[in-house]
What does this fold into?
Amino acid sequence: MTIEKAEQNFVVFIYGSIILFALLTSHPAEAEANLILNPGFENTGANGLPVDWAKGNYGTNSALFDYPVAGVGDSKAARVRVSAYTSGDAKWAFKDVAVIPGKEYEFSSTYSSDIGSYITVQFRKSDGSLSWTDIANPSASAEFTTLTARFVVPANVQSVTVFHLIKNVGSLTTDNLSLTEVSAPPPPPSDPANLIQNPSLETANASGLPANWLTGRFGSNTASFIYPVAGSASARAARVSISNYVSGDAKWYFSEISVASGESYSFSDEFKSNSKSYITAQFRNSDGNFSYLDIGTVNAASNWQRFETFFTIPAGVTQLTIFHLIKSDGILEVDNYSLKKTFFDPTHFDKGYISLNFDDGWLSTFQNAIPILDSAGFKSTQFIVTGRMNPQFPAYVQPDQVLQMQSSGHEIGAHGRTHDSLTLMSPAEAEQQIAGSRSDLLQIGVTPANFFSYPFGDYNDAVKQIVRDAGFKGARSSDGGMNLKNSDPYALKRQSVTSATTLGQMESYVSEAISQKAWSIIVFHEINDSRRQYSTSPAIFSQFVDYLKQNNITPITMDQGFSLINN
It folds into this structure.
């Protein structure tokens, strides 16, 4: 071999080694494959339209489709304009792409528009039928901006397209669209004590819903359920929204869990919402009937917040689930549920306690309940609507009767001046109701007036602060359940008695408090035979007082209960 040939071979060897080393040591980032063909509208067909795209509109409107127009940078884009609108929509649509049921996909669109637009997924099932779901509602943007949203493919769907559309007079330009399959997130570490399956809603089933979860709605309202949405500290959470609300509620809830009467449980979840929401336990009794217990009320929260409470399983209950629901126009997102059985909790009292509350200041309470209580040596807390302490309201107690109850040892509290909902008022109006009702009681000679009962149980953080500032030690809500040593003294829970409440149910409120070493506040209203919703017959009330006497259970006042909790 000549020297020249050897030198050539050596150079080839060196260059080849460098290329091989580069290939072996470089690891380019793997990107999820974009399923949309011609996603940036760069390829133009013989008909002058972007390849693998179609234009479409339906309804009564005048739509114009412009292509090509200037896109991001020097690229091509597509524009749709609506000049007259009555109904329907207009959009560019990419060719259907194959998808897998139960899988999550991410769609993005870079756009500019002079009106709000909509992102709608069109699902094509194996039988050829179509369905649609909205996954985003982008705002107008004069400059190009990118919108990203996710969805899970329902069962029996074989392909999709996604419309970025407008449905009003205006203009929308789109470019650089993307549809990719989202890699399944790793399951979070399991907590064997948590009884809820799929508690953070990370796992989807074949129908595209979170496994072991259901949706529920009743009453007159329009409810929509969206899954997944971004979670608190994980990839997935669930959203429920209500519009056109008249009555009822809507919620996500987990599959029923077997429980036993008398057991105690801690429950928590994370949420964010733009409206007040409620947490309600649904109990399935051994006879198959349902009963319900309100265990919490939370105000709107723009960032993720944690709710936590304890409760006890009533007699006869075999299964439960818990609804975190909304019952007004609004949006609620939920994530990270936990339900655990508790065996020891330092928040419990040394024994069980009960209090007897009477709301509104009904004359029938003074005439029928007070003599029964005085005869037994029991004391109650009477919450008075002070604006009704005048002859114009003959069905309510007058000042001398209020003072007579106080003189015989009954505690007097305030219930507002007119019994109107405090959260619907301005702060000044709420202060007039709260501080004003306390002032009214003090002026007639009530002393002290330390506790407040929220009319309709309606409160929020601002209302609680006004109650504090007015000089009240605490306040009672209409949230169902029992109180523990760590309960919020300005949101104490109660057990409500109505005309439908049996003597056995009243007794169960007491037995649960005793067995769980909790404080049960039992709330009555009218004591008469009217059979109105919040009335209790004197005969049943007398039997209930006899039950307390026979079991050596002496009710405590709100002030006595307050002294037992951790302030």
About this structure: Confidence is low (pLDDT under 50) at residues 1-30.
